[in-house]
Structures are given as C-alpha cells and as structure tokens.
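hiii, so i know i said id send this last week but things got crazy w the move. better late than never?? heres the sequnce for the chain we talked about at the cafe, plus the structure i predicted for it. fair warning i was half asleep when i ran it
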Amino acid sequence: MSHPQANIHPNAKIAEGAIIEPFATIGDNVVIGTGTWIGPGAVIMSGARIGENCKIFPGAVISAIPQDLKFAGEDTTVEIGDNTTIRECVTINRGTVDKMTTRIGKNCLVMAYTHFGHDTIMGDNCVVANSVNIAGHVTIEDWAIVEGMVGIQQFTRIGKHAFVAGGSMVRKSVPPFVKAAREPISYVGVNAIGLRRRGYTNEQITNIEDVYRTIYVQNKNMTQALKIADLELPKSDEKQEILDFINNETKGIMRGFN
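okay and structure toks below
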C-alpha cells in the first residue's frame, strides 16, 4: 500500500496493511506497524518505531536527531505506540544517551505544531494540544492533558490525570490528578471532571481532594504537609501515588493556591 511517489528506503520494515502516501519519506532503520497511515509529505527518519493503526499527518518529522550539542551520533530511537495520532508539522526528536529513546505511548493525540525534545517519555491516553513545546528529558504520565501553547521545561514531570491549562509555562513538576494554571504554574484544584470520566468514584476523588487540601490549601510547609497527609489521612492508592510522586521529585513541585 505504498504509493509509487513515496520515497522509501529499502531497509525500512513496513508491515502489510500500512499505507504510505505520495511524497512521504521513510528512512533507513524504520519500523512501521500494520494499519498505520503515513500522510503525504511526512518524514520518518532513521530510528523511528511506529506501532499499529497510527496516523502521521503531512509535515510531521519523526526521529530527527536531537537538538542537543552533546549528541554524538548515538544509535537511538523514537517509539510511537499503537493507535496514536500525530497531527500536522509535529516534530519528535530521537533520544540521547540519557534514555536512548523518545517515547509516545498508545492511544495518544498530539495536535499540530507540537515539539517533543529528546528523551521525553509520554504515557498512554494523553492529549497534547496545538503548539506545545516540550523540552528534553520531560516525563508526562498516563491520561495527562496539556492544552495549547504550553511550554514545558527540561527534566520536569507531569503526573497522571493532570490537566495543564493553555498558555502555561511548566517550570516545576505537576503532581497527579490536579489542574494547573497561572504564572508561575500553580495548583488550581483537582481534575474531578476528568477523573469521573475515567471511572474514579466520588470517594476516590474526595480522598484526592483531602490530600491536596492538606498540601496546598492549609498553608503548611511542604515537609509538614506531607507528614500530616501520610499519618492522618486515610490510606488509599491515590494518596500513595501523590506522596510518592512528590517525595521522588528532585526538580521541585509547582506552588500552591494563592
């Protein structure tokens, strides 16, 4: 199903059932899964590993070398999970020696003009809206939503089920289950609507709200707030996820509610 006007390297491994449209370019050392559609003019460079039933729209450039002066030609990859859509003019750079890959999970939607820097790892079921710029070494966990025109600084993390408002500058990590906005990036509540849509119960959401009320609203310092949340609030999987995320963070957590 490759158009005769597509430019495909003879060493590329393209599964039966993939569709390569005219003027697309497929480089050496590329793997493309069955059912995947590569649109006209898309450029898939060496090191790309694209799963099944993906859609790569015109103008996207997948697996170009990193924009990192330390890059020395390492044999690295970009991995894109099954059922993920990459819209027009998205750029996703290969990894470096840090993680050796840049990874986009399954069932994700990446909207037009977004950039993923090297060694960024994004989980499954994420949505990244138009013109988001993601620096290298960023982690975005499952089910996160990042609205348009957001800038994300290197080495930061966005937790699972987090929602980052459009136009935000993410200079500190965003814990799971929250809504983040303002400048500087701040806690503005729990992503209750998103959690309900994904099957979280009212009890689970209340537990999450209690943890963040302790951490962000009651004006305690972070160390004291984490200790109170750990010792005084009921045990739950969600509480433990929040505490683990914050305790393992080395670059700092976004500020609390003003």
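btw The mean pLDDT is 96. thought thatd interest u
miss u guys!!
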